[in-house]
Amino acid sequence: MSAATPRAASKAECVMIAGLAGALETDIHEPGAPFDVKRRGIALIAHPNPVQGGTKDNKVVTTLAKSLVALGYIAVRPNFRGVGASEGSFDHGNGETEDLLAVAAWAADRYGPLPVLLAGFSFGAFVQTRVIKRLSAERLILVGPAVNRFPAESVPADTLVIHGEYDDVVPLADVLNWARPQDLPLVVVPGGEHFFHGRLHLLANLVRRHCA
Fold first, then answer.
1. Short-list 200, 210, 160, 208, CA closest to 5
2. Which pLDDT tens digits describe the chain residue by residue (212 residues)?
3. Hey, is 174 helix, strand or coil?
4. Which of 34, 29, 32, 26 minimizes the C-alpha distance to 8?
5. I need a labelling partner for 8 at 20 to 30 A (CA). Which of 43, 83, 173, 204 fits?
């Protein structure tokens, strides 16, 4: 059976991981059979802006996690500093970059040298454009990257960028202006807005097809 075939996942585990500003509340979702012995990699997933209510339980974030678990990845979803039970306070992307690097190091220590996939939504996408400069990753997936609010970095040419046609938080034109100098293609979801209401199934299918 192909890796693209959805698989059941084990029950999510919540752990507290040491970060520079204190403990980071993190959900771990491991794939079920037949990936119990050989896992495909670790998917580190970043959530939207904490000061606007973003958490690891955001619907786009959990959709990314479920899609990647179905492909054999271990999905790792931390709450950034100051969110939920995570300690510390918002740091405009600087400390949040360190948070993700700390969680990645913890996951590598727990699971061994598995390939890493980075994914992020909105503010989380911006942070992942910084993380990939310091962490070797096999793939980068950016959804609704907040390029109009934070100075997103340039990214590898094979990055998957998904954006809603009618995004009213991060206009599509702004993302095109960021992507154009990089010759970076975008996947536009027709009728989609920032949170992909009614379009989450399309988001899941795009991720699965890209990673299959």
1. 208
2. 334 444 555 678 999 999 999 999 999 999 987 666 678 999 999 999 999 999 999 999 999 999 999 999 999 999 999 999 999 999 999 999 999 999 999 999 999 999 999 999 999 999 999 999 999 999 999 999 999 999 888 999 999 999 999 999 999 999 999 999 999 999 999 999 999 999 999 999 999 999 98
3. helix
4. 32
5. 83
Going from N- to C-terminal start, the domains of the chain cover 13-211
Euclidean distance between CA atoms 69 and 146, whole angstroms: 25
In whole angstroms, what is the distance from residue 16 CA to residue 86 CA?
8
Pick the CATH number of 13-211 from 3.40.50.1820, 3.40.190.10, 3.40.47.10, 3.40.30.10: 3.40.50.1820
